[in-house]
């Protein structure tokens, strides 16, 4: 099957090319879950269309741990995700999984962290086999760019604490520097987005497992 664009009323999957094989080796296809159309368009411009697909959320995900099963199954975005993955609700048909990896790629702010927790809880309740098979990971995008006087390359910080550590180290060396905060994925230039979030050879992906979902559920008030 060639690459396709899967469309519902508000959700659009930008699929990867399904006819590509490289040197007779299997292509490990990835589905990148992002926040909204702006992030989706930015990621789609720099992704490798041979093996990377993009699915944007529309608004914050439903809290599947507190909703009824009926409400979850009627949710348009969850339905689009299930269709994109191909495994059915509760991943009862893993042989039909259309992607080898699912990657959460959300903004590094509070809303993005909340989105990631909600998505992880949904996966734990409805797609647990993917977590157990180590198919789901989180990519953290940079929150700050730091530029130091006399250096062409920039540094990236992934939290307020990380920023302060870098600034303190530069202060100790008496290197003048400045920084600015990214507004989200769409505000990253193409090279930074590709290097820190998209390229498997340079990004950092954190494996998500059932125990991470239990932590998220505890934080969001579900008794487990």
Bin the strand percentage: 15-25%
Structural class: alpha/beta
Strand order of the largest sheet: 4-3-5-6-10
Written as H for each helix and E for each strand, in order along the chain, the element string is EEEHEHHEHHEEEHEHEH
Largest sheet: 5 strands, mixed
Output the number of helix runs: 8
Please write the CATH class name of the largest domain. Answer: Alpha Beta
Distance between the amino and carboxyl termini? 42 Å
CATH architecture of the largest domain, by name, is 3-Layer(aba) Sandwich
The radius of gyration computed from the alpha-carbon positions, rounded to a whole number of angstroms, is 19 Å
The low-pLDDT segments are 1-9
What is the molecular shape? globular
| CATH topology assignment of the largest domain | Rossmann fold
Q: What value does the average pLDDT take? A: 89
Helix content: 25-40%
Number of domains: 2
DSSP strand tally: 10
Give structural notes.
The chain is 36% helix and 19% strand. It is of the alpha/beta class. The chain has 2 domains: 5-141 and 185-219, Rossmann fold (3-Layer(aba) Sandwich), CATH 3.40.50.670; 144-181, no CATH class. The protein has a 5-stranded mixed beta sheet with strand order 4-3-5-6-10, sandwiched between helices. The protein has a 3-stranded antiparallel beta sheet with strand order 8-7-9, covered by helices on one side. It has a two-stranded antiparallel ribbon with strand order 1-2. Strand 1 (5-7) and strand 2 (12-14) form a beta hairpin. It starts with a strand and ends in a 5-residue tail after the last helix.
